[in-house]
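We close this part of the discussion by returning to an individual protein. Part of our work consisted of pairing the sequence of a single chain with a tokenised description of its backbone. The amino acid sequence and the backbone structure tokens for this protein are reproduced below.
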Amino acid sequence: MARRSQASEPPTDWRDQLRRYRLTQNIKQAALAADLGVTQAMISRWEAGLVDPSPVMQQRIRALLASEAAIPLVDWRSHVAQQPGLAAVIHPFGEVETISLGLARLLDRPAAKIEGQHLDDLFRGDLPQLFRRLKRTGFFDETAESVESADKYCFVDKNGHVVSHCVHGLHWPHRGEEGEIRWMLTGAKIGQAEFDRLRRNLTGHTGKVLAE
């Protein structure tokens, strides 16, 4: 990421902005392309960082993102809770404070049975490890703008069976009502081939975008 210049504003990271929007809204590249009036291939090129959107498209994207950014602080938790995709608000101690409809559906249990529990009590493997890595690398001190990950969501279902899903995640710190940082977790289920590709590209299972 380009460093800030004293003479001008830093360039917008369109790759991060678009991926965050899609994961938060649980939409695919084709749907975003239709909203913006471009091809899916163009969305893919923007998200890969190969090219930047044209000035006209930048205006359209900013208008689209503004609808999400306009959500009042008092409603941010309810916004997460109503998401059809995979999303959650995690306390710095690892407790799940708010969970989305989509993640509750994946775990096949009501939100009331999930919220208030620690990640270690809900998941095995990658997700608890990701939490500990975020803690260790200063994520909750806002030393990162966002973190991209490829994780296996492993858990025991209500029948006692171990279930595993491949998930492409994008995470960022969010300052809560009392000023303490929370982990905003978002993710989208992906196939094994895409999961393997992301793992290779992320050099492990996380890629970090450092704050400037």
